[in-house]
Specification:
Number of strands of chain B: 0
CATH superfamily of the largest domain in chain A: Stage V sporulation protein AD
CATH class of the largest domain in chain A: Alpha Beta
Largest sheet of chain A: 12 strands, mixed
Oligomer: heterodimer
Structural class of chain A: alpha/beta
Largest sheet of chain B: none
Strand content of chain B: under 5%
Radius of gyration of chain A: 18 Å
CATH architecture of the largest domain in chain A: 3-Layer(aba) Sandwich
Distance between the termini of chain B: 29 Å
Structural class of chain B: mainly alpha
Order of helices and strands of chain A: EEHEHEHEHEHEEEEHEHEHHEHEEHEE
Shape of chain B: extended
Protein backbone atom coordinates (compact mmCIF):
# COMPACT_ATOMS: atom_id res chain seq x y z
CA UNK A 1 0.00 0.00 0.00
CA UNK A 2 1.20 3.44 -0.86
CA UNK A 3 -0.04 6.83 0.17
CA UNK A 4 -0.50 9.26 -2.67
CA UNK A 5 -1.33 12.91 -2.13
CA UNK A 6 -2.91 13.92 1.15
CA UNK A 7 -5.06 11.00 2.16
CA UNK A 8 -5.46 8.46 -0.64
CA UNK A 9 -4.01 4.97 -0.44
CA UNK A 10 -3.39 2.71 -3.43
CA UNK A 11 -3.48 -0.99 -2.67
CA UNK A 12 -0.36 -2.84 -3.75
CA UNK A 13 -2.12 -6.16 -4.26
CA UNK A 14 -5.62 -6.65 -5.58
CA UNK A 15 -8.18 -7.04 -2.83
CA UNK A 16 -11.05 -9.04 -4.31
CA UNK A 17 -14.68 -8.70 -3.52
CA UNK A 18 -15.44 -12.42 -3.51
CA UNK A 19 -19.13 -12.18 -2.77
CA UNK A 20 -21.80 -9.81 -1.55
CA UNK A 21 -25.17 -10.39 0.06
CA UNK A 22 -28.04 -8.22 1.20
CA UNK A 23 -31.32 -8.65 3.03
CA UNK A 24 -33.80 -5.78 3.17
CA UNK A 25 -37.19 -4.97 4.65
CA UNK A 26 -40.67 -4.66 3.17
CA UNK A 27 -40.44 -0.97 2.23
CA UNK A 28 -37.24 -1.57 0.27
CA UNK A 29 -38.96 -4.50 -1.40
CA UNK A 30 -41.55 -2.08 -2.78
CA UNK A 31 -38.78 0.20 -4.06
CA UNK A 32 -37.20 0.40 -7.51
CA UNK A 33 -34.21 -1.85 -6.65
CA UNK A 34 -36.37 -4.80 -5.57
CA UNK A 35 -34.95 -7.18 -8.19
CA UNK A 36 -31.36 -6.82 -6.99
CA UNK A 37 -31.78 -7.79 -3.34
CA UNK A 38 -31.02 -11.36 -2.26
CA UNK A 39 -33.90 -11.51 0.17
CA UNK A 40 -36.76 -9.18 1.08
CA UNK A 41 -38.61 -9.52 4.37
CA UNK A 42 -42.39 -9.54 4.59
CA UNK A 43 -42.50 -7.64 7.88
CA UNK A 44 -40.18 -5.65 10.11
CA UNK A 45 -40.05 -8.18 12.96
CA UNK A 46 -38.94 -11.27 11.01
CA UNK A 47 -40.34 -13.56 13.71
CA UNK A 48 -38.56 -11.76 16.57
CA UNK A 49 -40.27 -9.91 19.41
CA UNK A 50 -38.32 -6.65 19.15
CA UNK A 51 -36.90 -4.52 16.33
CA UNK A 52 -33.44 -4.70 17.83
CA UNK A 53 -33.53 -8.50 17.69
CA UNK A 54 -34.89 -8.34 14.15
CA UNK A 55 -31.98 -6.10 13.10
CA UNK A 56 -29.47 -8.48 14.70
CA UNK A 57 -31.04 -11.35 12.81
CA UNK A 58 -30.84 -9.41 9.55
CA UNK A 59 -27.09 -8.72 9.88
CA UNK A 60 -26.42 -12.29 11.07
CA UNK A 61 -28.22 -13.86 8.13
CA UNK A 62 -26.66 -11.41 5.68
CA UNK A 63 -23.14 -12.22 6.84
CA UNK A 64 -23.91 -15.95 6.71
CA UNK A 65 -25.28 -15.54 3.21
CA UNK A 66 -22.20 -13.62 2.01
CA UNK A 67 -19.86 -16.27 3.45
CA UNK A 68 -21.94 -19.07 1.89
CA UNK A 69 -21.85 -17.33 -1.50
CA UNK A 70 -18.08 -16.86 -1.30
CA UNK A 71 -17.68 -20.66 -1.08
CA UNK A 72 -14.93 -20.36 1.51
CA UNK A 73 -15.31 -21.94 4.92
CA UNK A 74 -16.17 -19.50 7.69
CA UNK A 75 -13.10 -20.84 9.54
CA UNK A 76 -11.02 -19.30 6.73
CA UNK A 77 -12.34 -15.80 7.52
CA UNK A 78 -9.74 -13.96 9.56
CA UNK A 79 -11.67 -10.89 10.66
CA UNK A 80 -15.13 -9.43 10.68
CA UNK A 81 -15.64 -5.65 10.51
CA UNK A 82 -19.22 -4.70 11.18
CA UNK A 83 -21.29 -1.88 12.60
CA UNK A 84 -24.71 -0.29 12.82
CA UNK A 85 -26.54 2.71 14.25
CA UNK A 86 -27.83 1.42 17.57
CA UNK A 87 -26.13 2.40 20.83
CA UNK A 88 -22.89 0.49 21.40
CA UNK A 89 -23.33 -1.25 18.01
CA UNK A 90 -25.56 -3.91 19.53
CA UNK A 91 -27.10 -5.13 16.27
CA UNK A 92 -23.71 -6.25 14.99
CA UNK A 93 -22.29 -7.60 18.22
CA UNK A 94 -25.46 -9.45 19.21
CA UNK A 95 -26.14 -10.63 15.68
CA UNK A 96 -22.60 -11.91 15.19
CA UNK A 97 -21.92 -13.26 18.68
CA UNK A 98 -22.35 -16.82 17.43
CA UNK A 99 -20.34 -16.28 14.25
CA UNK A 100 -17.12 -17.42 15.91
CA UNK A 101 -15.10 -14.82 13.99
CA UNK A 102 -12.54 -12.35 15.35
CA UNK A 103 -14.73 -9.26 15.45
CA UNK A 104 -14.20 -5.52 15.19
CA UNK A 105 -17.33 -3.48 15.92
CA UNK A 106 -17.02 -0.18 14.11
CA UNK A 107 -19.02 3.02 14.04
CA UNK A 108 -19.07 5.59 11.28
CA UNK A 109 -22.80 6.34 11.42
CA UNK A 110 -24.19 5.72 7.94
CA UNK A 111 -20.66 5.60 6.48
CA UNK A 112 -19.98 2.36 8.39
CA UNK A 113 -19.96 0.15 5.30
CA UNK A 114 -17.29 2.36 3.68
CA UNK A 115 -15.29 2.23 6.88
CA UNK A 116 -15.59 -1.57 6.98
CA UNK A 117 -14.45 -1.96 3.36
CA UNK A 118 -11.56 0.45 3.98
CA UNK A 119 -10.33 -1.31 7.12
CA UNK A 120 -10.91 -4.75 5.61
CA UNK A 121 -8.87 -4.06 2.49
CA UNK A 122 -6.09 -2.37 4.50
CA UNK A 123 -5.90 -5.46 6.72
CA UNK A 124 -5.61 -7.75 3.70
CA UNK A 125 -3.15 -5.48 1.88
CA UNK A 126 -1.03 -5.33 5.02
CA UNK A 127 -0.80 -9.14 5.05
CA UNK A 128 -2.68 -9.38 8.33
CA UNK A 129 -5.49 -11.38 6.76
CA UNK A 130 -6.40 -13.50 3.75
CA UNK A 131 -10.17 -13.24 3.98
CA UNK A 132 -12.26 -10.62 5.70
CA UNK A 133 -16.00 -10.11 5.98
CA UNK A 134 -17.47 -6.60 6.15
CA UNK A 135 -21.05 -5.75 7.06
CA UNK A 136 -23.37 -2.96 8.15
CA UNK A 137 -27.03 -2.81 9.04
CA UNK A 138 -29.83 -0.45 9.98
CA UNK A 139 -33.51 -0.82 10.79
CA UNK A 140 -36.15 1.85 10.28
CA UNK A 141 -38.10 1.07 13.44
CA UNK A 142 -35.15 0.69 15.83
CA UNK A 143 -33.56 3.87 14.42
CA UNK A 144 -36.77 5.89 14.78
CA UNK A 145 -37.10 4.62 18.34
CA UNK A 146 -33.55 5.63 19.24
CA UNK A 147 -33.23 8.90 17.34
CA UNK A 148 -36.75 10.28 16.88
CA UNK A 149 -40.31 9.58 17.99
CA UNK A 150 -42.39 6.43 18.53
CA UNK A 151 -43.69 5.07 15.23
CA UNK A 152 -47.32 5.26 16.30
CA UNK A 153 -47.08 8.98 17.10
CA UNK A 154 -49.26 10.93 14.67
CA UNK A 155 -46.64 13.58 13.90
CA UNK A 156 -45.64 15.05 10.55
CA UNK A 157 -42.23 14.33 8.98
CA UNK A 158 -40.41 17.35 7.62
CA UNK A 159 -39.80 17.47 3.84
CA UNK A 160 -36.02 17.21 4.37
CA UNK A 161 -36.24 14.14 6.61
CA UNK A 162 -34.98 10.81 5.32
CA UNK A 163 -36.22 7.26 5.71
CA UNK A 164 -33.84 4.85 7.45
CA UNK A 165 -33.36 1.74 5.34
CA UNK A 166 -34.26 -1.57 6.97
CA UNK A 167 -31.59 -3.89 5.72
CA UNK A 168 -28.05 -5.08 5.77
CA UNK A 169 -25.28 -5.56 3.23
CA UNK A 170 -22.21 -7.70 3.55
CA UNK A 171 -19.12 -8.35 1.44
CA UNK A 172 -16.40 -10.98 1.69
CA UNK A 173 -12.98 -9.58 0.74
CA UNK A 174 -10.11 -11.84 -0.16
CA UNK A 175 -6.54 -11.86 -1.37
CA UNK A 176 -7.48 -14.32 -4.11
CA UNK A 177 -10.12 -14.07 -6.78
CA UNK A 178 -10.99 -12.52 -10.07
CA UNK A 179 -12.39 -9.18 -9.02
CA UNK A 180 -14.01 -6.79 -8.83
CA UNK A 181 -11.10 -5.25 -6.95
CA UNK A 182 -10.87 -2.60 -4.32
CA UNK A 183 -8.06 -0.50 -5.75
CA UNK A 184 -7.80 2.78 -3.88
CA UNK A 185 -9.07 4.23 -0.63
CA UNK A 186 -9.67 7.80 0.46
CA UNK A 187 -10.69 7.75 4.13
CA UNK A 188 -12.58 10.91 4.97
CA UNK A 189 -12.01 13.64 7.52
CA UNK A 190 -14.69 14.89 9.89
CA UNK A 191 -16.27 17.97 8.31
CA UNK A 192 -18.77 20.14 10.15
CA UNK A 193 -20.94 22.40 8.00
CA UNK A 194 -22.61 23.89 11.07
CA UNK A 195 -26.00 22.36 10.24
CA UNK A 196 -27.99 21.81 13.43
CA UNK A 197 -31.19 20.36 12.02
CA UNK A 198 -31.26 16.61 12.73
CA UNK A 199 -33.99 16.34 10.09
CA UNK A 200 -31.66 17.59 7.38
CA UNK A 201 -28.85 15.04 7.36
CA UNK A 202 -28.23 15.37 3.63
CA UNK A 203 -27.15 18.98 4.03
CA UNK A 204 -25.05 18.12 7.09
CA UNK A 205 -23.11 15.40 5.25
CA UNK A 206 -22.71 17.08 1.85
CA UNK A 207 -19.64 19.02 3.00
CA UNK A 208 -17.84 15.87 4.11
CA UNK A 209 -18.72 14.18 0.82
CA UNK A 210 -17.31 17.12 -1.11
CA UNK A 211 -14.12 17.15 0.97
CA UNK A 212 -13.43 13.44 0.41
CA UNK A 213 -14.37 13.56 -3.28
CA UNK A 214 -12.12 16.57 -3.94
CA UNK A 215 -9.25 14.88 -2.08
CA UNK A 216 -9.74 11.70 -4.08
CA UNK A 217 -9.63 13.52 -7.42
CA UNK A 218 -6.65 15.68 -6.43
CA UNK A 219 -4.67 12.79 -4.93
CA UNK A 220 -5.26 10.37 -7.80
CA UNK A 221 -5.30 12.89 -10.64
CA UNK A 222 -8.50 11.24 -11.82
CA UNK A 223 -11.44 13.16 -13.19
CA UNK A 224 -15.11 12.40 -12.44
CA UNK A 225 -15.41 10.95 -15.95
CA UNK A 226 -12.84 8.24 -15.05
CA UNK A 227 -15.59 6.39 -13.20
CA UNK A 228 -18.64 4.75 -14.76
CA UNK A 229 -20.53 5.84 -11.71
CA UNK A 230 -19.92 7.68 -8.45
CA UNK A 231 -22.21 6.79 -5.54
CA UNK A 232 -22.61 8.58 -2.24
CA UNK A 233 -24.25 6.70 0.62
CA UNK A 234 -27.29 8.56 1.86
CA UNK A 235 -27.18 12.24 1.01
CA UNK A 236 -30.72 11.90 -0.31
CA UNK A 237 -32.32 14.27 -2.80
CA UNK A 238 -31.35 17.44 -0.93
CA UNK A 239 -27.76 16.44 -0.14
CA UNK A 240 -27.24 15.16 -3.67
CA UNK A 241 -28.16 18.54 -5.17
CA UNK A 242 -25.95 20.32 -2.64
CA UNK A 243 -22.97 18.08 -3.48
CA UNK A 244 -23.44 18.68 -7.22
CA UNK A 245 -23.42 22.45 -6.59
CA UNK A 246 -20.44 22.25 -4.21
CA UNK A 247 -18.43 20.23 -6.73
CA UNK A 248 -19.46 22.65 -9.50
CA UNK A 249 -18.06 25.51 -7.45
CA UNK A 250 -14.70 23.69 -7.35
CA UNK A 251 -14.73 23.07 -11.09
CA UNK A 252 -15.81 19.42 -11.12
CA UNK A 253 -18.97 18.53 -13.01
CA UNK A 254 -20.27 15.25 -11.60
CA UNK A 255 -23.81 15.46 -12.99
CA UNK A 256 -23.36 12.83 -15.70
CA UNK A 257 -22.36 9.83 -13.59
CA UNK A 258 -23.15 10.72 -10.00
CA UNK A 259 -25.98 9.23 -7.97
CA UNK A 260 -26.85 8.57 -4.36
CA UNK A 261 -27.85 5.21 -2.84
CA UNK A 262 -30.52 6.95 -0.74
CA UNK A 263 -32.03 8.40 -3.90
CA UNK A 264 -31.95 5.06 -5.74
CA UNK A 265 -33.42 2.76 -3.10
CA UNK A 266 -36.85 4.41 -2.77
CA UNK A 267 -39.35 5.95 -5.14
CA UNK A 268 -39.70 9.32 -3.44
CA UNK A 269 -43.19 10.13 -4.70
CA UNK A 270 -44.82 6.70 -4.57
CA UNK A 271 -43.31 5.67 -1.23
CA UNK A 272 -43.54 8.97 0.63
CA UNK A 273 -39.93 8.81 1.79
CA UNK A 274 -39.41 12.58 1.53
CA UNK A 275 -35.68 13.29 0.96
CA UNK A 276 -34.73 9.63 0.35
CA UNK A 277 -33.19 6.67 2.17
CA UNK A 278 -30.54 6.75 4.90
CA UNK A 279 -28.84 4.50 7.42
CA UNK A 280 -25.87 2.11 7.38
CA UNK A 281 -28.00 -0.40 5.52
CA UNK A 282 -28.64 2.04 2.67
CA UNK A 283 -25.21 2.11 1.01
CA UNK A 284 -24.47 -1.44 2.24
CA UNK A 285 -27.54 -3.00 0.61
CA UNK A 286 -27.43 -0.88 -2.56
CA UNK A 287 -23.76 -1.80 -3.05
CA UNK A 288 -24.22 -5.47 -2.18
CA UNK A 289 -27.33 -5.73 -4.33
CA UNK A 290 -27.58 -3.29 -7.19
CA UNK A 291 -23.96 -2.16 -7.73
CA UNK A 292 -22.50 -5.68 -7.42
CA UNK A 293 -25.08 -6.90 -9.89
CA UNK A 294 -24.03 -4.22 -12.37
CA UNK A 295 -20.40 -5.35 -12.00
CA UNK A 296 -21.39 -8.96 -12.70
CA UNK A 297 -23.27 -7.90 -15.80
CA UNK A 298 -20.29 -5.87 -16.94
CA UNK A 299 -22.27 -2.62 -16.99
CA UNK A 300 -19.89 -1.07 -14.48
CA UNK A 301 -16.13 -1.42 -14.70
CA UNK A 302 -15.02 1.41 -12.43
CA UNK A 303 -17.02 2.96 -9.65
CA UNK A 304 -16.37 5.12 -6.63
CA UNK A 305 -18.44 4.20 -3.59
CA UNK A 306 -18.55 6.86 -0.93
CA UNK A 307 -20.79 6.06 2.06
CA UNK A 308 -21.59 9.18 4.07
CA UNK A 309 -22.28 9.48 7.78
CA UNK A 310 -23.73 12.04 10.18
CA UNK A 311 -21.79 11.65 13.43
CA UNK A 312 -24.40 12.64 15.97
CA UNK A 313 -26.77 11.21 18.53
CA UNK A 314 -30.01 12.43 20.05
CA UNK A 315 -28.20 13.95 23.06
CA UNK A 316 -25.92 16.17 20.94
CA UNK A 317 -28.92 17.35 18.91
CA UNK A 318 -30.84 18.24 22.05
CA UNK A 319 -27.82 20.13 23.37
CA UNK A 320 -27.84 22.26 20.23
CA UNK A 321 -24.62 20.89 18.73
CA UNK A 322 -24.10 20.99 15.00
CA UNK A 323 -23.82 17.73 13.04
CA UNK A 324 -20.33 16.67 11.87
CA UNK A 325 -20.26 14.59 8.71
CA UNK A 326 -17.85 12.03 7.29
CA UNK A 327 -17.44 10.20 3.99
CA UNK A 328 -15.09 7.35 3.06
CA UNK A 329 -14.36 6.80 -0.63
CA UNK A 330 -13.60 3.32 -1.93
CA UNK A 331 -12.58 2.87 -5.55
CA UNK A 332 -13.83 -0.44 -6.99
CA UNK A 333 -12.74 -1.60 -10.43
CA UNK A 334 -13.12 -4.70 -12.58
CA UNK A 335 -9.44 -4.53 -13.61
CA UNK A 336 -6.45 -3.44 -11.58
CA UNK A 337 -5.76 0.13 -12.72
CA UNK A 338 -2.72 1.29 -14.63
CA UNK A 339 -2.91 4.97 -13.71
CA UNK A 340 -2.08 4.46 -10.04
CA UNK A 341 1.17 2.82 -8.96
CA UNK A 342 1.48 1.46 -5.45
CA UNK B 1 -69.66 19.72 12.26
CA UNK B 2 -66.66 18.50 14.30
CA UNK B 3 -66.83 14.96 15.63
CA UNK B 4 -66.75 16.11 19.26
CA UNK B 5 -69.67 18.44 18.62
CA UNK B 6 -71.67 15.56 17.15
CA UNK B 7 -71.15 13.49 20.31
CA UNK B 8 -72.07 16.53 22.40
CA UNK B 9 -75.31 17.10 20.47
CA UNK B 10 -76.25 13.42 20.78
CA UNK B 11 -75.73 13.62 24.56
CA UNK B 12 -77.80 16.81 24.73
CA UNK B 13 -80.72 15.36 22.78
CA UNK B 14 -80.70 12.44 25.18
CA UNK B 15 -81.22 14.88 28.02
CA UNK B 16 -77.77 14.66 29.62
CA UNK B 17 -76.53 17.68 31.57
CA UNK B 18 -74.18 19.99 29.59
CA UNK B 19 -71.17 19.66 31.93
CA UNK B 20 -71.41 15.89 31.97
CA UNK B 21 -71.78 15.90 28.18
CA UNK B 22 -68.41 17.69 27.84
CA UNK B 23 -66.80 15.00 29.99
CA UNK B 24 -68.40 12.27 27.93
CA UNK B 25 -67.05 13.90 24.74
CA UNK B 26 -63.50 13.97 26.17
CA UNK B 27 -63.67 10.35 27.34
CA UNK B 28 -64.94 9.11 23.97
CA UNK B 29 -62.34 11.12 21.99
CA UNK B 30 -59.50 9.90 24.21
CA UNK B 31 -60.67 6.31 23.88
CA UNK B 32 -60.99 6.51 20.10
CA UNK B 33 -57.52 8.04 19.58
CA UNK B 34 -55.89 5.56 21.98
CA UNK B 35 -57.68 2.71 20.22
CA UNK B 36 -56.66 3.92 16.75
CA UNK B 37 -53.07 4.33 17.99
CA UNK B 38 -53.08 0.73 19.15
CA UNK B 39 -54.32 -0.38 15.73
CA UNK B 40 -51.43 1.57 14.13
CA UNK B 41 -53.93 3.77 12.30
CA UNK B 42 -53.53 7.06 14.13
CA UNK B 43 -50.13 7.85 12.61
CA UNK B 44 -51.67 7.47 9.15
CA UNK B 45 -54.53 9.79 10.08
CA UNK B 46 -51.98 12.22 11.56
CA UNK B 47 -50.01 12.16 8.34
CA UNK B 48 -53.12 13.11 6.37
CA UNK B 49 -54.93 15.44 8.76
CA UNK B 50 -51.98 16.99 10.63
CA UNK B 51 -53.04 19.29 13.47
CA UNK B 52 -56.69 18.51 12.72
CA UNK B 53 -56.22 15.04 14.15
CA UNK B 54 -54.02 16.11 17.08
CA UNK B 55 -55.75 19.08 18.73
CA UNK B 56 -56.52 19.12 21.53
CA UNK B 57 -57.14 15.91 23.40
CA UNK B 58 -56.76 13.21 20.71
CA UNK B 59 -53.08 14.05 20.10
CA UNK B 60 -52.44 13.92 23.82
CA UNK B 61 -53.86 10.40 24.10
CA UNK B 62 -51.80 9.37 21.07
CA UNK B 63 -48.62 10.83 22.58
CA UNK B 64 -49.09 8.71 25.72
CA UNK B 65 -50.11 5.45 24.06
CA UNK B 66 -47.47 5.48 21.29
CA UNK B 67 -44.33 5.44 23.54
CA UNK B 68 -46.07 2.94 25.83
CA UNK B 69 -46.42 0.59 22.86
CA UNK B 70 -42.93 1.32 21.54
CA UNK B 71 -41.13 0.57 24.81
CA UNK B 72 -43.15 -2.50 25.80
CA UNK B 73 -40.15 -4.60 24.75
CA UNK B 74 -38.17 -3.12 27.68
CA UNK B 75 -40.70 -4.42 30.23
CA UNK B 76 -43.65 -2.90 32.08
CA UNK B 77 -41.67 -0.90 34.66
CA UNK B 78 -38.63 0.58 32.91
CA UNK B 79 -40.26 0.32 29.48
CA UNK B 80 -43.97 1.13 29.46
CA UNK B 81 -44.07 2.87 32.86
CA UNK B 82 -40.94 4.98 32.56
CA UNK B 83 -41.17 5.90 28.90
CA UNK B 84 -44.91 6.50 28.65
CA UNK B 85 -44.50 10.23 29.24
CA UNK B 86 -41.46 10.90 27.06
CA UNK B 87 -43.57 12.81 24.53
CA UNK B 88 -46.43 14.03 26.72
CA UNK B 89 -44.24 14.79 29.78
CA UNK B 90 -43.10 18.26 28.64
CA UNK B 91 -46.70 19.17 27.75
CA UNK B 92 -47.82 18.16 31.25
CA UNK B 93 -44.99 20.01 33.01
CA UNK B 94 -45.38 23.29 31.15
CA UNK B 95 -49.16 23.02 30.82
CA UNK B 96 -49.65 22.60 34.56
CA UNK B 97 -46.92 25.16 35.42
CA UNK B 98 -48.45 27.83 33.21
CA UNK B 99 -51.94 27.15 34.57
CA UNK B 100 -50.58 27.69 38.10
CA UNK B 101 -48.97 30.99 37.08
CA UNK B 102 -52.15 32.16 35.39
CA UNK B 103 -54.09 31.08 38.49
CA UNK B 104 -51.84 33.15 40.76
CA UNK B 105 -52.20 36.21 38.53
CA UNK B 106 -55.96 35.76 38.54
CA UNK B 107 -55.97 35.42 42.34
CA UNK B 108 -53.97 38.63 42.79
CA UNK B 109 -56.25 40.59 40.50
CA UNK B 110 -59.32 39.08 42.11
CA UNK B 111 -58.35 39.92 45.68
CA UNK B 112 -57.56 43.50 44.60
CA UNK B 113 -61.06 43.62 43.14
CA UNK B 114 -59.74 44.27 39.64
CA UNK B 115 -62.10 42.91 37.02
CA UNK B 116 -60.26 41.35 34.13
CA UNK B 117 -63.18 40.57 31.88
Amino acid sequence: MKKIGNQTYVLSKPVNILSTACIVGPKEKDGPLNAYFDQCLEDEFWGENSWEKAESKIIKETVNMAIAKSKIASSAIDFCFAGDLLNQCISSSFGLRESNLPFFGIFGACSTFGEALTLGSMTIDGDFATNVVCAASSHFCSAEKQFRFPLELGNQRTPSSQWTVTGSGSAVLSKDGEGPYITALTPGKIVDMGIKDANNMGAAMAGAAQDTLLCHFKDTGRKPSYYDAIFTGDLGHIGKDILIDLMDSKGYNIRANYNDCGVLIFDKDAQDTHAGGSGCGCSASVFSGYISHMFKEGKYKKILLMPTGALMNSTTSQQGESIPGIAHAVSIEAQFPTDLQA
Amino acid sequence: MPFGQIIFEICKTRGIDETISYTIVSIILIFISAFLTALNLFNKIGKFAGAGSLIPITGFANSIVSPAMEYKSEGYVMGVGAKMFTVAGPVLVYGISSSIIVGIIYLIFNTQSITLI
